[in-house]
Amino acid sequence: MDQDPRAGRTAMSGERSPEEIRADLENTRRDLGDTAEALAEKTDVKARAQDRVQEVKANVSAHVPDDAQDLLAKVRANPLPLVGAAVVVAAYWLGRRSAMP
Q1: Phi/psi of residue 3, each to 5°?
Q2: 3: left (phi over 0), alpha (psi -120 to 50) or beta
Q3: Could you tell me if 58 and 82 lie in one domain?
Q4: Whole domain around residue 91: which residue ranges?
Q5: For residue 13, what pLDDT is reported?
């Protein structure tokens, strides 16, 4: 119980070299830096929200049926029919709007 687990020597002996003390201090500083970095990461709400958005996007695309993905690929490859349909809808909407008093 009086054994120092890091040095393998008794805690009360006081026979640690300056190099061992410096190494312990460096390890402690590194651990403290890692802890501070982890806390800063947890408090960065914007980054956590962006990470969550990316997770949701990945989850949704994993669950989209292959047929829908195929349809999307076809539309991206040949957008002309979609543009034509949009023009027809816009013309209809503008016609209805201008007919109103």
Answers
A1: -90, 130
A2: beta
A3: no
A4: 66-101
A5: 60
